[in-house]
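re: that chain from earlier
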Amino acid sequence: MPPSSAITVDNTGESLSAVNGPFVEAPEYLGGFWVIDVAGEGTALDWAACTSKALGGRIEVRAFRVPPSSD
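^ sequence. v structure.
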């Protein structure tokens, strides 16, 4: 999905923050990524919170665009 659909998770401080919008607005930017297959957005945000705490950085969460059905 486009950067505008992102939720940025920051669990580096004393409290968890999740805000709508991308981490960095730039025409080209990629610091690395993971692909996880989870049941929903809430589970993805939980993973992002744990990862943000472990790595000491913000995590941007976005869904994949679902391809059209061939049926």
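Residues 3-61 form one domain.
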